[in-house]
TrEMBL record:
One of its GO terms (molecular function) is kinase activity. Keywords: Kinase, Transferase. It comes from the Bacteria. The keyword Kinase applies. It comes from Acetobacterium paludosum. This is Kinase.
Length: 79
């Protein structure tokens, strides 16, 4: 299943979310403190995600170890 690590992290925090899997690429919409976030996995030349986790109002692409990169950003929320 795609985006397993991010999904597990969100579940551990008990944040409401919706997960969709299309052609083995994941998409997660979730809320934290009433703000909506989106993580959409894609495959071009390599796997990556587009997400607004780093900057609420702006979708950005993350490549490489994107699941861990996004989780590290979310771990800092509320600090």
């Amino acid at each position: 299943m795609a985006l397993d690590q991010i999904k597990q992290f969100i579940e551990s925090k008990e944040w409401p979310y919706r997960y969709t899997d299309v052609a083995e690429l994941g998409s997660i919409d979730f809320e934290y403190l009433g703000v909506s976030y989106h993580v959409w996995e894609f495959m071009d030349d390599q796997y990556g995600v587009e997400s607004n986790v780093k900057n609420i109002g702006k979708l950005e692409e993350f490549l490489g170890d994107y699941e861990n990169d996004l989780i590290e950003i979310m771990k800092k929320w509320g600090e």
